[in-house]
Amino acid sequence: MSVKEDVIGRSRVEDTDELKEFYSRLENLNAGALWTVANDIEPWEPQPTSVPVLWRYADLRPQVIDSASMVTGDDAGRRVVMLVNPGRKELSAAVGLLYTGLQIMNPGESMTAHRHAASALRFVIEGEGAWTVVNGDRLKVGPNDFAITPRGAWHEHGNDSDRSQVIWQDGLDIPLVNTLDANSFQVHPDQYQTPGKVQNSSLLEYGAGILKPAGADWNRRYSPLLAYPWERTYEALLNQAKVSAGSPYDGIIMEYVNPLTGGSVMPTMGAHMQLLRAGEATRAHRHTGSVVYHVAKGHGHSVINGQRLDWHEHDIFCVPSWAWHEHANDSASNDACLFSFNDFPVMHSLDLYTEAAMEDNDGHQLLS
Amino acid sequence: MSVKEDVIGRSRVEDTDELKEFYSRLENLNAGALWTVANDIEPWEPQPTSVPVLWRYADLRPQVIDSASMVTGDDAGRRVVMLVNPGRKELSAAVGLLYTGLQIMNPGESMTAHRHAASALRFVIEGEGAWTVVNGDRLKVGPNDFAITPRGAWHEHGNDSDRSQVIWQDGLDIPLVNTLDANSFQVHPDQYQTPGKVQNSSLLEYGAGILKPAGADWNRRYSPLLAYPWERTYEALLNQAKVSAGSPYDGIIMEYVNPLTGGSVMPTMGAHMQLLRAGEATRAHRHTGSVVYHVAKGHGHSVINGQRLDWHEHDIFCVPSWAWHEHANDSASNDACLFSFNDFPVMHSLDLYTEAAMEDNDGHQLLS
Amino acid sequence: MSVKEDVIGRSRVEDTDELKEFYSRLENLNAGALWTVANDIEPWEPQPTSVPVLWRYADLRPQVIDSASMVTGDDAGRRVVMLVNPGRKELSAAVGLLYTGLQIMNPGESMTAHRHAASALRFVIEGEGAWTVVNGDRLKVGPNDFAITPRGAWHEHGNDSDRSQVIWQDGLDIPLVNTLDANSFQVHPDQYQTPGKVQNSSLLEYGAGILKPAGADWNRRYSPLLAYPWERTYEALLNQAKVSAGSPYDGIIMEYVNPLTGGSVMPTMGAHMQLLRAGEATRAHRHTGSVVYHVAKGHGHSVINGQRLDWHEHDIFCVPSWAWHEHANDSASNDACLFSFNDFPVMHSLDLYTEAAMEDNDGHQLLS
Amino acid sequence: MSVKEDVIGRSRVEDTDELKEFYSRLENLNAGALWTVANDIEPWEPQPTSVPVLWRYADLRPQVIDSASMVTGDDAGRRVVMLVNPGRKELSAAVGLLYTGLQIMNPGESMTAHRHAASALRFVIEGEGAWTVVNGDRLKVGPNDFAITPRGAWHEHGNDSDRSQVIWQDGLDIPLVNTLDANSFQVHPDQYQTPGKVQNSSLLEYGAGILKPAGADWNRRYSPLLAYPWERTYEALLNQAKVSAGSPYDGIIMEYVNPLTGGSVMPTMGAHMQLLRAGEATRAHRHTGSVVYHVAKGHGHSVINGQRLDWHEHDIFCVPSWAWHEHANDSASNDACLFSFNDFPVMHSLDLYTEAAMEDNDGHQLLS
Prior knowledge:
Four copies of one chain form a homotetramer.
Chain A: H1 17-28, E1 31-33, H2 38-41, E2 54-55, H3 57-70, H4 73-76, E3 80-83, E4 99-105, E5 114-116, E6 120-126, E7 130-134, E8 137-140, E9 146-149, E10 155-159, E11 166-172, H5 174-179, E12 185-187, H6 201-206, E13 211-213, E14 227-228, H7 230-243, E15 252-256, E16 270-276, E17 285-287, E18 291-297, E19 300-304, E20 307-311, E21 316-319, E22 325-329, E23 336-342, H8 344-349, E24 355-357
Antiparallel strand pairs in A: 2-21, 3-4, 4-11, 5-12, 6-9, 6-11, 7-8, 7-10, 9-14, 15-16, 16-23, 17-24, 18-21, 18-23, 19-20, 19-22
């Protein structure tokens, strides 16, 4: 039974014996009385069950390394330590309807190919041998490179280094797609794809960004560019900083885009890289939509709903929907970079995106 | 622990003492091992917890009538018997992430105005006095009329008859918007809106459909047309039947559209009216996306995942995502009409729509 | 040699013997000096060669009737008296890059089928037997009905009355498509199309406007609806007048639209019907884009660039691009209706649409 | 009087005295008989009056250099030798409705600011001091750089070198915009703009192509990126050549795009750079739409409607609409690059684009 609220337009029905009998009759008919739940299901503002969490790489890395010797890739499918929000355990979500995890591959190892209705992305943390074959395009990716595995694309991963392990972060919309009753999974009939001859062909074909193959006829809903190198990304941020003051809430922030449309890389997940200049501390805002952050460079802290989280390179943290958040680079001399992915494309497609800036206290939260 | 599957690419890790200790370490770090849940969260095909349900109007109507005397509109907020899928109780959903309910208003009664991030629609069942004010436009609606209350629109309802009660069906995306952590609610500062002078102004302005006000400049994501009369709808179906064989799965079926774009009426929910010709029995198909049906006219039956549901006027039933379904008009002389609403716009926006036709047994399911 | 202008940034080069010799050298190389034409080809504002023209039906009708006995349809291709702007003779244009003409068909007559890259539209003036087959859809059209023949569509016309002639107005973008070097023409291999069984099938299929066939998959750039009946059009204007004050420049004005997109009926030409209330006199404005008007109902006058044109039923007049224009209904008791077609879709697609309102003299032009 | 054609559906009316009198009557009413011009204005296929032309830089450069001392920039507005197609003299067009010219600026010279409804682009030929200020953004451009001046943008140019002249090629849609009666022109109220502090800011802000400023809100119809450096362009071609066989008609060909949409740089003109590999000879095709080519690198020849044109660096040539054309790189060891601009965006927006491949003779034209 939902809490009563004494406001006109809200439910304030008291339980009576007669009503209890009525509710029981309804239940037998697969029905119920709206007023018993109305105040709960029509909240004054979003009520995420997700909470802010900081996952320290210093804590997680030893576990990930351990996992590499505890299970084989073949037995595990993929060897991943997933990050689970205390409020979203039943969905295996890191925040909102987003999943994330740390995947490790040993030297010379490769995983078999599969595909699913869920979409995936990767952000590489360490190791030089990482590769992934997506729809036949073999991508080589290194630290801080960003790559995508769109819905329905065959994919398989591996590590062709002969000495170093690879660790990367996976991001997926599995909780979203499951909640929408739309997920599916297939293993590749041949276990492995036959990649094209040229590596990183999508980068060669679509990576210019400011020119496209004439007549390029792309009718899919995701980016034809599958990998976004760190060097290009960081250079873009530095260039942007020369001409723009940036966002008061995010500093210099750029979105990875589909170069053929300027839209988000995939229809369910977007991704950003942002740069906080030395000493920069942003103002607080909040918005619908959930975000997973990865510290790509530097150290600093974020305040999320009044809670301070201090972060260092490769730490991961999350901002639930509608949570106040602000970021600070704690270095006086070096910039800091935050990679992040989100479900903003969902919010925008469904017309559910809303944002608000903190007005009081110069735009900064009070620590709780 | 998820079920193991002995297929390459699926998880088949056995629990060991060492692993149990490892899992416990991970849990302490808000983490987990993907392979313990992978086969569950990456299912071979959609696994809705919703089940097919038929809600008989003969059963529900007496309850709805009872409610009209048991609680006041003021106390209840709105007086609604909601229909709850046994598999979705925690979300108050009728199927998937769709909510539906039967609302009753007594003669002369009116509800106070509010708005929410969730979107709503109405399908009128009985009574002549129904009105609703949406964003200042006062709509008069009668049996089998369809009306929308888009996200963020102020709305209030009432019944200006002096003798008959009004019952209509509400459809909302509340479970979806709550799951996306994006719902919000406001009561109107003046309790009631001041409606414009002309009733059904959106119908007068945008109802022609084949002409629009020159230079109409509409930048919202939902239809400017707020009410769709039954007479126009039924005539459209009869006209369509003269030129089209219709869909093998749905007979003659038309979608209510935004006349300025041809798109769905709202970005999260679409609505159809379909006509099954006398004696028509359609073939089975399935698709991602959930549907709530209301029998607007006639009687017949549907088979959903092998289960036969016999329906009569004003019965409501649901088809979960990916469930096989086919419909039959059991009258040899009269047509039957099914109103339905769905989350197909979400499936399309997020590129998650997939469908499949039943090939065997002439396209008909075997009853289970 | 263009006129010199003594404004910084404009050309004011004087001819000299040396320059004359230079110009002659350039001409031999298929070249020229920009400054000799710059002030002409970069005018301060649009410089149409089209002039306002009123074509009185009382003058034209006798000629059209004459033509019906002077040439056969077979010999003429189509029997049309075209309206030619004195400033656009070389292009056979009525105004700007728009062509128009009056076509007559004798009882029982039919024309052979052809198609062209140019797009066409029809507005019926008199006669009850008019039909046209467009892409296999046989349309029956009567007075004040509007119909389209999109680019590339096979079409043929006729008159199945056994006693009355048919006269309709043709509108085409022939001058535009020729100027763009993109026109082409084919005669139908079988001389005549085999029409579908159901007449006006596009109206039955798409005419509802506020509902569409579910899953309608239309990938062409023009409206699937080929005919727009006068009754629906006039009713839409009367409804609009109940809720809208209309445009200060055009009264109650609606655009015929593609019901699947809300866009113009064809990518090169749009069409409107407007209603001037009894006694209504609009204010003057001007815009890029050319318009051909047809008086569908009533009588009144328009002032175009200071020139008053008095019009009666079935008169045709034109407004050149960037010409000031305002309209008045000269009846104190009856409404007047103006059908018009234009090249606004071209202006909008190419981002060349601009408009300005007359501010002085209460928005009315002084007669010149 | 148009030529008669003895084909059913074409006009074949013979002049008679009666008809001559009729035509004269029509002329007095600003009218005419369609059948007297029908076969002309409805041609079997496009009938451009433009002809293929090769403008040799060896011929033009001396004239351009001469012009620099013969007229001042102030007197000329801009000092430009324009290239005029023998068939389009009245429109000052190089081909179809496209204008082009060679502009020269002396060391230290600058032109005053203006704007127009016509759109412009530049392709730099020689000189290191070229700059242009477009909407306040100061661009520095060097040889083979491409830059745009969209419709309505204030712009001014200059040369800040202290010793070398600058020559660049201008491309404009002036003939198109004039033909559409939509051109206009303003001189800047302050004669010169005040440029922003950072040079090439659009390149810094939007040049990454594969990332965009987060939340970039661009509601104009042209690219926010105003300059496209040659180095990036050439690298893109070389990368493309690694993964693609290219077009059979154009070799490796890429379109300069609006990085926020993937669309053409402006709504009326598109631009390409293409690379012909050593020894490559393409097959012939034709399409609606006109093209101006500039030889950016290398030497070779093109065959246009059977006419061979041999080209060297900085030569300019044109291909009229619907003309057969094929290109060959005559070097066995070096690649050749052709810059080109066109009116394809117009053809696509108006649904007038059509193309055809030559089937006979292995796809190669016979020389005429």
